[in-house]
Design brief:
The structure holds two protein chains of two kinds. Chain A is mainly alpha-helical. Chain A has one domain: ABC transporter involved in vitamin B12 uptake, BtuC, CATH 1.10.3470. Helix content of chain A is about 70%, strand content about 5%. Chain A has 15 helices and six strands. In chain A, strand 4 and strand 5 form a beta hairpin. In chain A, helix 3 runs parallel beside helix 8, helix 3 crosses helix 13 and helix 12 packs parallel to helix 14. The model of chain A has no long low-confidence stretch (mean pLDDT about 85). In chain B, about 50% of the residues are buried. In chain B, helix 13 runs parallel beside helix 15 and helix 14 runs antiparallel to helix 15. In chain B, the strands form two sheets. In chain B, strands 1-4 form a two-stranded antiparallel sheet. In chain B, strands 2-3 form a two-stranded antiparallel sheet. The longest helix of chain B is centred in the last third of the chain and has 30 residues. The radius of gyration of chain B is 20 Å and the shape is globular. Chain B has one domain: ABC transporter involved in vitamin B12 uptake, BtuC (Orthogonal Bundle). By secondary structure, chain B is mainly α. The chains are: A mainly alpha, B mainly alpha. At the A-B interface, helix 6, helix 14 and helix 15 of A face helix 7, helix 13 and helix 15 of B.
Chain lengths: ~350, ~350
């Protein structure tokens, strides 16, 4: 039993167990859930779809993991996704012949720059002006949709530039192309945070910003760059979202993504109170959410209603992370044992 | 001494807001014909009655140092429940209105209970509440439900003469009555004083023997009640229930409260300031309508910008306060912050 206990202390185990239970449920109740076939050199099936559809949330979760580790939050990511999609659509233009107004690379880099600027704005508000993260990012959460609507002129812009479709719809070595982007960004983030001291600094800021400052670390700069990085991740995510549906819709692109991404990070074991963070856990968290969504679809429930389930999961997970709740629970169990 | 009276951090933001409102009204009067009239001023209350109601509830929440992000979707849920009960189940408005108000209060109470009892961050609990209420809207109905009930129709079209030919709508009267009650409760009741004390310092409030736990839960229940009432008033405008009503209204509400001089850190703020904040919000919308060529999405962007400006102002005042607090002659006990 001791090995089981020490296994339980490894953070990644719990999200994996949750994912396993979800998959097991689908094994019994959803027909053909695990069916994967090869068509025209690509893998097809529910599992591949989950991976592919989870990619935008995974990208957001990478940035958000670092933000939450500093005891912050970024609820503007969904709106920044819409802004990024709006900018790339505006620059490519809705030309039916597939002729791009500006070169593809220019449009994509511009979208990423604008998203990073949005992240810098958040970072500036939090680190320099000292606003609470929730209020600072609430401004872009709402105003960002306004900006996205202005870039698309309040219309849905359809895109016909063929090469752009590779990002969200393309395949490489049989697997969706977007997964390679996620893997690359994840690897990069992992190397920067775990092979240098940056990760330690971020955790230190989340645990005790004052002590961090006394230790000679520039906490404000770390917070600033963490939000900027979150904006950048949202930008990449926005490109993939726009490419998947080949359109930009200021109102609906990235809608509710902030909830999914926060949920992914929290499910992955990173506490909303900041401190230690788990990038791989967040990735598993994103997969759990996507599997949950796919499962809900498979049962023919209206997709909007899945919000109710997700909201309850957030409440449940917050409770489990609350020290007061745990000690109450522990007290309840020990009382029961004592009376037995 | 006179100088300090004018640069009182408690009243200056409200004065700035008052100046801003007068300036904008003057600007509109000069730039557009037909802008300057008593009816146009009363229209601000008529058109923003629901926002005023939300903002009164939110003022209490923010003064206590909390935040409620669920107000917009709680409003939508109220419109959906009203419309569905009235039109699909043909229940009398005399029953529908209390049921809706009770539902809103109960949801607010539940969130307050989670926040207070388990010491959870208000923003994450109410963010989940935002999605939960929005999802529940779709559970009620995916489509818009029109309201044909006579009582609601009368309330929608009634005009109550105030001065000469100028009139107010029943919604505006409800909102103004709530404002009067709000001012009374915040200034002259034990509940009101406890709210300010919690915002000033929760720890001190507990040590003073104030009923902190009860009050904190009541604050969120009150905000839930206000959201439900705002939802009913909102149906007087639209005569329908729609799941996407009130999208982004959480920022509008917080913006009105912040522009009205309430500190996001808690402890300082007034209901009357919030009324001014709502008026400023309203006049921005009127100006954009009169201007005619700007996309209505610009309202969102302007509001986001105003929140930013006022938050920066707040930080500046706080910084100033901290500097002056070092001097012995100007150091005042924290509790005086809690009055007003």
């Amino acid at each position: 039993m001791r090995w089981l206990k020490s296994l339980g202390r490894v953070k990644i185990v719990w999200p994996l167990v949750a994912l396993g239970i979800l998959l097991l449920f689908n094994l019994f109740f959803t027909p053909n859930f695990f069916h994967v076939e090869v068509k025209a050199g690509h893998f097809y099936g529910n599992l591949i779809d989950i991976l592919k559809n989870a990619a935008p949330i995974m990208l957001l979760a990478i940035g958000l993991t670092l933000v939450i580790a500093t005891h912050g939050i970024d609820i503007s990511v969904g709106s920044v996704v819409a802004v990024s999609a709006g900018v790339v659509a505006m620059l490519l233009g809705g030309d039916l012949g597939g002729h791009a107004r500006y070169p593809l690379a220019v449009a994509m880099i511009a979208a990423l720059l604008v998203s990073s600027a949005a992240g810098m704005w958040n970072g500036m508000l939090v680190s320099r002006i000292g606003m609470q993260p929730i209020i600072a990012t609430l401004i872009l959460f709402v105003a960002g949709r306004g900006i996205a609507m202005v870039t698309t002129n309040a219309m849905v812009i359809w895109l016909y530039v063929k090469p752009f479709a590779l990002l969200g719809q393309g395949y490489l070595f049989g697997l969706p192309f977007s997964l390679y982007i996620v893997a690359a960004l994840l690897l990069l983030t992992f190397l920067v945070t775990r092979r240098t001291a940056v990760g330690l600094f971020i955790e230190a800021v989340g645990i005790n910003p004052t002590a961090t400052r006394f230790a000679g670390i520039n906490a404000r700069n770390i917070i600033f760059w963490v939000y900027t990085f979150s904006g950048f991740c949202a930008g990449v995510s926005g490109l993939i979202v726009a490419s998947t549906v080949m359109s930009a819709d200021g109102n609906n692109a990235g809608n509710l993504y902030e909830l999914d991404a926060i949920l992914a990070v929290v499910l992955g074991g990173t506490s909303l109170n900041g401190g230690k963070f788990y990038l791989l856990g967040s990735m598993v968290g994103a997969l759990i959410i996507q599997t949950l969504t796919t499962t809900i679809y498979a049962f023919n429930v209206a997709p909007e209603i899945s919000q109710v389930v997700k909201a309850m999961v957030v409440w449940g997970v917050s409770l489990l992370q609350s020290q007061d709740f745990r000690s109450r629970l522990a007290a309840m169990f020990s009382r029961r044992e004592a009376s037995a | 001494m006179i100088r300090r009276r004018f640069i009182n951090p408690r009243t200056l933001p409200v004065l700035v807001t008052l100046g801003l409102f007068i300036a904008m009204f003057a600007l509109g009067s000069v730039a557009f014909t037909g802008f300057f009239s008593a009816q146009n001023f009363l229209n601000l209350f008529i058109d923003n009655a629901y926002l005023l109601i939300l903002a009164v509830g939110m003022t209490f929440v923010i003064i206590s140092g909390g935040i409620d992000l669920s107000v917009g979707s709680m409003l939508a849920l109220s419109t959906m429940i009203s419309a569905s009960l009235l039109e699909k189940s043909h229940v009398s408005p005399l029953i529908v209105i209390p049921v809706v108000l009770a539902t809103g209060t109960a949801l607010g109470f539940f969130m307050g209970y989670l926040i207070q009892t388990f010491n959870l961050p208000p923003f994450i609990i109410t963010l989940a509440g935002l999605y939960l209420a929005r999802g529940l809207c779709y559970v009620v109905s995916i489509d818009t439900i029109g309201i044909t009930n006579d009582f609601f129709r009368t309330a929608a079209h009634a005009q109550l003469n105030v001065i000469g030919a100028n009139f107010l709508s029943p919604s505006a009267v409800i909102a103004l009555v709530l404002v009067v009650i709000g001012v009374f409760v915040s200034r002259f009741t034990k509940f009101g004083r406890t709210v300010y004390a919690i915002g000033g310092s929760e720890q001190s409030a507990i040590l003073m023997g104030l009923p902190v736990a009860r009050t904190k839960i009541a604050i969120y229940a009150l905000s839930g009640f206000c959201s439900a009432l705002a939802g009913i008033v909102f149906t007087f405008y639209t005569l329908s229930g729609y799941a996407l009503d009130g999208k982004g209204m959480e920022l509008d509400t917080i913006a009105a409260v912040v522009i009205g001089g309430t500190l996001l850190t808690g402890g300082v703020g007034t209901i009357l300031g919030t009324v001014l904040g709502v008026l400023v919000y309203g006049i921005i919308q009127v100006l954009i309508v009169f201007q005619g060529t700007l996309n209505s999405w610009w309202t969102r962007i302007v509001i986001g910008f105003l929140v930013f400006v006022f938050c920066v102002l707040q930080r500046l005042f706080e910084a100033r306060k901290n500097v002056t607090a070092v001097k012995p002659e100007s150091s005042r006990p924290q509790v005086t912050q809690a009055s007003g």
